[in-house]
Amino acid sequence: MNEGLRLDDLAAPLRALRLLAADFGHLAAPAVRVTPIYPERLELAFHDDLAGFEGWRDALGIAPDAVTYGTQSGGRTRVLWLSVEYAGAELELVAYAPIPAGALVGAAA
């Protein structure tokens, strides 16, 4: 952990969050994370809400090909991820959603 950091040291992600709330308050509410471990980063996470992630991606004007797709939990969870600079902070958008059981069965066949 970054010892000795003050709240002022998190100004970039907090400023970005303030701007996002003012400009995009109508969008889906994400889980928000600001941490002294990564003092320049603001993470917006969507759990079981790929549409929320896509709404934010589109509103921010980020191209679909900037999104990284992956899976975790043995292929049972899809993950969408992107990172861009926004208002002087590193903005990460991430979404997690279960892969339907039928899709898993079909994929194994």
Automatic annotation (TrEMBL):
UniProt-recorded name of the protein: Uncharacterized protein
Species per Swiss-Prot/TrEMBL record: Streptomyces olivoverticillatus
Top-level taxonomy: Bacteria, Bacillati, Actinomycetota, Actinomycetes, Kitasatosporales
